[in-house]
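Fold these two proteins, one after the other.
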Amino acid sequence: MSTPTHLAGSAAANAWEALFRAQVSVLRELSADNIWRELSIKEYDVLFTLSRAEGRGMRLKDLNTEVLMPQPSLSRLVERLEARGLVNRSSVPGDLRGTWVELTDAGAEAQRTTGRRHVQSIDRLVGSALSPEELDALEMLCTRLRAHAVSSSVDSPVTTVSHLEDRS
């Protein structure tokens, strides 16, 4: 059975569906690429996110808002990364339940090594499909959409990714 490519009546729904399907296809190709030797794509995502954080560290709950992974899975992944010496975990002063996660030098090196290969894959898959102007427009539109979603989530009763857990 074929999937309809156009939903009647909603330009936003059609745009979302196109974006979502493109993301699924691209991510599937990137995940299957032969670059994930030292790190899985989820491990890379965590290390990449930490590498962009101030001081290469952040609270676990804040890290959880940046990656598409349920909190219990993220906690287990961070434990495994710590056991491999790629991150350090510590308590947050004044917060008995808070956990601070910080990228180690070894973690930063693993992220950079995998990241170089990942950028080449992205260039091959995404960069070859779009012009430089289209890439700029895509980045601008996705950045705007993300900022709007984040600002809207404050007012929304649904602020978790639990409905996405089956996709991870």
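Now the second one:
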Amino acid sequence: MQNHIIFLFSLQNQNYKGHGLSKGKEREQRASIRFKTTLTNTLMDVLRHRPGWVEVKDEGEWDFYWCDVSWLRENFDHTYMDEHVRISHFRNHYELTRKNYMVKNLKRFRKQLEREAGKVEAAKCDFFPKTFEMPCEYHLFVEEFRKYPGITWIMKPVARSQGKGIFLFRRLKDIMDWRKDTRSSDDQKDDIPVENYVAQRYIENPYLIGGRKFDLRVYVLVTSMSAGCLLWSGHGRHNVHLTNVAVQKTSPDYHPKKGCKWMLQRFRQYLASKHGPQAVEMLFSDMDNIFVKSLQSVQKVIISDKHCFELYGYDILIDQDLKPWLLEVNASPHWDGSSQEDYELKTCLLEDTARCGHGKEKRVGALTSCGSDGPVSRRRGGS
């Protein structure tokens, strides 16, 4: 039996009331839940096998739609949804999932905490590397770059994923070459904008397992971004990626059945054997802080529509001092299983999410849905 981890943010229990645009009595009599998705992977398998869930195709009415972000952008404002209907993204989810917006919101929130609660509280937001948006913060970046000559920086496109467009550099000349490369030709260079990137200080002391870098993928389920959320967490729904999986698959020694991932329990045991249980507990407490503070940073800017939920994929890097660093947050995590073990983990995760998404259960797997009238808080529990 696998352990679970999902973080559930919610203002209130959102009870399932019916289906589509049907009238009240008809909704009460109907037992099925009509779902729709365009994703043909683990998610489709989970939804098709849920008792009482019926797939809807084309333009049929639906109660639960796991859509892609492009559909949301093009259709949300023109689609009528009855009160009970649920859809898998917040309208402006990008406030947390675009790299430049995430950093902007975290910086703003840190300044707010320093004004309102002091430097000690603000320091709890120091979990992301020094970052600048390019090209608009180029001059600020140059000042920082010259303070610490010789260190490595990493450039990342703000809206791409799976390692695409990323490169390392130590010289300003490399940035100038990059800016030239993004233009198609000299006679068009004034008309074609440079693609936005972030320049981020590279974590040069990553924790290694078997001589390899890794990151942790943590799935965080958010059902409401309204003020007054209560967080409940269980244990375990982490994936430990031994290097970027999308990149690792291109390696000639990649094994598709074994993959390159660990389950959380194995990872915790490994760390405890090296550093002791107390250090491991501190690490995971610091990770909890990342989830809470990052969501607080966008709480006032993300549109908390009652129809929306989001299953975020957090990527966390750990350094040699067992300090966790937030690398990025994904709005559309990859649901294909890279191995049988990975497929089973994602199946359990998505089953919990589907059950919670339409709001019938107060407890789902390792999730507990609670309401609160106070600020975002955290309550922990075992699985």
